[in-house]
Specification:
The complex is a heterodimer of chains A (597) and B (563).
Chain A: H1 21-30, H2 32-39, H3 41-56, E1 67-83, E2 86-103, E3 114-115, E4 129-130, H4 137-169, E5 185-187, H5 197-209, E6 219-235, E7 240-257, E8 263-272, H6 281-298, E9 306-313, H7 316-330, E10 337-338, E11 367-371, E12 377-378, E13 381-382, E14 399-403, E15 406-407, E16 427-430, E17 433-436, E18 440-445, H8 452-462, E19 467-474, H9 482-495, E20 506-513, E21 518-521, E22 524-526, E23 537-540, E24 545-551, E25 561-567, E26 570-579
Helix pairs in contact in A: 3-4
Chain B: H1 6-20, H2 26-41, E1 49-67, E2 70-88, E3 116-117, H3 124-155, E4 173-175, H4 185-196, E5 207-223, E6 228-245, E7 251-260, H5 269-288, E8 295-301, H6 303-314, H7 321-324, E9 345-349, E10 355-356, E11 359-360, E12 377-381, E13 384-385, E14 405-406, E15 414-415, E16 419-424, E17 427-428, H8 430-443, E18 448-456, E19 473-481, E20 486-489, E21 492-495, H9 498-503, E22 505-509, E23 513-521, E24 524-532, E25 535-544
Parallel strand pairs in B: 4-6, 8-18, 16-24, 17-22
Antiparallel strand pairs in B: 1-2, 1-5, 2-3, 5-6, 6-7, 8-25, 9-12, 9-16, 10-11, 12-13, 14-15, 18-19, 19-20, 21-25, 22-25, 23-24
Helix pairs in contact in B: 2-3
Classes of the chains: A alpha+beta (597), B alpha+beta (563).
Amino acid sequence: MKKPSIRHRRKNEPRRTDKGFGMLIFCLFLLISILYGQESPILQAMQDELLRTTKNLKLQKEKPPYYVAYRIDDKEDITITARFGAIVEDHSERTRNLYIDLRVGNYDFDNSNFVAGERSQFTGEENFTPLPLDDDYDAIRQKIWLATDAEYKAAIDLLAKKKSVVEHKALTETIPDFSRSSAYQKIEEIQKIKIDCDCWRKRVKEISNLFRNYPKLQTAKVVFRFSHLVRYFIDSEGNKQVTNHFLTYIETYARTQNQAGANLFDLVGFYAQKPFELPELSFMIDKVKAMAETLSLYTEVKEEKEYTGPVMFAGKASCQLFYQIFGKGVSDTRKPLYEQEPMEKIFEENTGFLAGKLNKSILPDYITIYDDPTAIDYQGAPLIGGYSVDDQGVKAENIELVKAGKLVTLPMSKKPLKEIKQSNGHGRFYNGVARNYISNLIVKSDKTTDDLEKELINLCKEKDLDYGIVISAFSPSIPKTIEEMEEEIYSYFGGGKPETPMLVPTFVAYKLYTDGRKELIKGLKFEGITPQVLKDIVAVGKDFTVYNTLLRERFGSDSYLPISVVAPSLIIEKMVLTSKEEKTKKQPYLTHPYFAK
Amino acid sequence: MFKMNYPRFLVFGLLVLFCFAQASSLIPIMEKELNRSYAGLKNAGKEPLYFLQYEIVDEEEIRIQAFNGAILANDYSRNRYLTVDCRVGNYNLDNTHQLRGATGFSGFEFYAPSFDQIPLEDDEFAVREVLWQKTDEEFKKAQERIMKVKAERATKVAETDTSPDFSKAEPIQDLGEPAKLVCDTVAWSKRLKHLSAFFKPYPWIYSSNVSLTAKAVTKYLVNTDGTRIIEPRNSYSIHISAQTKAEDGMRLALYRPFYSRTVLGLPKDDEIKAAIDTLINDLAALRKAPLVDPYSGPAILKNIAAGVFFHEIFGHRVEGHRQKLEREGQTFKDKVGTKILPEFISIYDDPTLKSYQDKDLNGHYQYDNEGVKAQRVTVVENGILKNFLTTRSPIEKFPKSNGHGRRQYGYKVVARQGNLIIESKNQVPYDSLRKLLIAECKKQNKPYGLIFEDIAGGFTMTGRGGLQAFNVTPLLVKRLYIDGREEVVRGVNIVGTPLIAFSKIIATGDDSDVFNGTCGAESGAIPVSAIAPSILTSELEVEKKVKEQEKLPILPSPIGGGK
């Protein structure tokens, strides 16, 4: 293991100034940014406490920690929300939290990848310590000291419990719990972006005011969010980083009911890292209008019974397909060992189902898939899934996941898998756990078709079908109210969770008749979809769509993971679509007060 | 540039604060939608809508926390929360009626708070959109629930308390000025940093906090009785806390709150510094203190501790709904007119009282959350139970509300305390009370008595399922030996039956003081006060707390040195 020397300056140790005043000024001038990093009281406190921890922290009869990482997330968040032209929430917040990854045991077997008791990963209990916002060395160190002490004791307890569970379950196959990474040092200057809140307030109000023109919609919400995270990371493997992470978005979420009383909702979001990368207001307004118009139309669209035949996934729908069937399939592939299987486990993201397909062909041989966290845009369109260093302090790597249709590797964190042991810079924290996860997923095809709709019509004619189905978007799976979560919980109790990936029902879809006519349809779901559908891709378009999304449990949830998917439109040869059962609720008794005027 | 843009946020907070501080036209907007909804929904469902109420709570809050001379948090928030109360059926039987066979956690019907956020701007249709949706939701829920109520009535035996579900109340029109928040966050940050640094020389204090919470809360309430209320409320509080561990790993924590309705009413630095010094000294004494031995005998509860004790142990049991709900313990249901306390004790709950001596009272309010004017209620007169705290939901023999229907936004109203006042006709100076404790110890043949200097309140379980036991946590307790020596002890847990301690009060001090705090119960967290003199009881039972298994920190504090 490469162990770079870190210069530790004790708090009261005098600085060496014997080289003369001029030299000092020169040094300051030359290395100003680096010096800022190294002299930051935050990094200093982290380093000094890390040194003390690795050297001296040991409980009698117990082993000292073999790995310690300190991560301090200094975050500025601005949230502005509007409804129907008026501001509802207007909030700025600054937090500075310490996260500790402390491990006892060794790389092969430690306190991680284990959930004690009935706790679930789903609940997202992330242990963190709020730190002073002031750059106060003493106060920060005091907090790090006590948090480390608590983490160490908890780690020892957890390891003991894990040992007894492993012995009890007589597990034979063992995969190491953790892997080393080569030390990476990167000290970025802290960037500052001024947010003109007044300007964003106006925009958010203006967008939400559009809904005064859509009497068929019941409610809409527009959210502006700006988040700047300055991350300080050091660990006992010699990693040391200060990095900036930005996320800016405007999401518009609209809801109504169709004539039968079923809920209809849609989300249109604009995402970028920095505010100036967001599209022009007029562009956003047009997109929101289009969404509102489609949603309004959908209040009268009748339910479709069933369909078997070729299906075209256009634009966003293709990205969503790749995200759900491929992206989630290769992510979070190693599940923890549970002391007791918690009830809530069934609500966890269905992920990792493609792990067994490694080195197997899963797509047509003309398709290649990359995951590139280092990319910040795709042909000018901003991507939000990227980073320069992952959440475990590992340098981001562009990886080729699928080569000529074959799955050749997986996104990797420092949590080893049976087949792959090393991290490739894809360790991402979500709900308090470091998982291997995709970032910017980019799908490319060597063979493309000029006119995909024409191709679909041809396929239909071959099969004697009057029409084919084109899906342009799936229901946003994100905006869930607590009520909807509860409904979902109850619906799961019946049949348990399906083993295959879940694609939410189609939302925007239409019939494409062989004569070229188009007709909106709704309410279809896939029957028994498996990753096998990827092999049934028969045509790929020349186009590409950049789809940015946030993995999160609820609309507005604080724990989220930015993900980007770039993919062309495509056709799958044969799919079975059936009507979905919809929960209906009585329409509102009274008309919206504005439209009742 | 490592100094982050922290001061910018402070300025931002102030700006927002001024932008929104404007006269509100919320009431007419609420009125319009209330009238439209009432007319439109009255006969729209199976059961008629007979009462509808909108309550919007506009909460503006600044919270600054400091630790060892550094700012730990500095938050500004402003939100408007809407709660809709909807009653279908009639005054005798409506959707709010208790469901005895309710399912959910341990047989309780589980009420999740139900609220929505209202725009911060008084835009008529943006506000009315939320009112409309929440009304529709609550109306549908009410229709569903009354079906369950009626179904249960048909199958279960009659309830013992057959009083109606709702009572009429006088309409009220009182439109006050919305509350404004006055707080110089920059100056306060400096002050809190300065004050919190007094903890810094003590590395054995693991964690400490000096915080300011400044709130401007305005309640807007309209209902179909014709009631229209705007009630402002300001509160400024400073909270000091410190935690450490004893050598055996026992967690020790002490708190000290200050409260005022005005920012100027908060204590000056020297007073806060003195409180910090006392807290540090007490914590130091606790660390070295011996563990308490199981004990049953005479004890003094110091004034503020006595206030907390009365609020938790007595006050919650005279809340009206607890005499009616079948799942409740109904401790005092049949005790009206009988002696439950020594004849020299009287107890009132008087939310109309703004201050006591020179101290502002946190439990003060003009109108409760059902639009009823707050009233002084004589709960106990000369030891005899006279009355309960009531809401508009009648209980046997108490058909009317006395203005104690309270809740945090989103929750259902229940009877709650405001300012609980304990008065005594058997007052002696505290020194004499101390002597009386020694005398009582000698009489009972005890080597020492206990003095409860400080206790923290908690949720008292009054239900039949739960234990009817104390739920107060003693923080600082001393032994008073018969030779007059005092000794701090730790690990004290109060056990036994609550009512005994009250019926055995021998005398009280003449040192009534105010406890200001927040009370959490089934209708959420609400501000309360309790005023009590020190009390001497001949019997209180304590035991040793179950020992925590945690060890002391392995490494010494990194800051080192210090005192």
